[in-house]
TrEMBL record:
Organism annotation: Adlercreutzia rubneri
Residue ranges, annotated region (Disordered): 202-225
Keywords: Membrane, Transmembrane, Transmembrane helix
Domain Metallo-beta-lactamase intervals: 129-208
Ranges annotated as biased composition (Basic residues): 213-225
Protein name: MBL fold metallo-hydrolase
InterPro entries (UniProt xref): Metallo-B-lactamas (IPR001279), RibonucZ/Hydroxyglut_hydro (IPR036866)
Cited Pfam families: Lactamase_B
Amino acid sequence: MVDYRSSDIACYMGVCVMERRLGLPGAMLGILLCAFVMVLLGSSLAYGAPKDGEVRIHVMPYNNTDAIIVECDGKFGVVDSGEDSLSPDGADERYPLRGGITVGQGIESQVISYMEMLGITEDNLEFYIGTHPHSDHIGSAADVIRKFHPKTVYTPLYSDSFISEETRLWDNRFVYDRLIEAVESYDGKLVQYLDPDWAEVPELGTDGDEGGRRKRWQRRRRAQW
């Protein structure tokens, strides 16, 4: 774990992480995280236990994956939580077994244990940001979300139809759907657009099928752009 003790570094890192992982949409989420750090959390840090108004950024680096935790005044936020131990086996046609899928490198147990050590609960976890639907970023999101019930979850809209190169589909839909289902399991707030007119996630079709969900996604995507 790397502990950054400067709000300027924390803000810069947050924006860079968002831009590196999401490009232009990431810049918007980067601004959101930066504003959270600089305006809501405070501007100074010190060694030892955080004092009032002090910010601490916990970075948990692992092999080709990481988790980031923002802490201040007894409140927390998470930006990605790394790989999960689950992966598609091809039994469900929605989640084919594709080349390039990471298997057996989950860090959910380590992340959850560290969060518990910090004293994170559903009462003080303010947000979870899933930067984009790759397993090394949000694979363990469902586990973290189901365990700690963050008040708000931010993640971009996703459909396999958004990906033009088939070799890059991996288990994107698998980890994305698990995240969405985790939020729905406790009626959490899901934000997928920063434009106030498009802040809430589309609901499933009346029959609850994926087709109904995708049609709503496509309509809203056209309206957004």
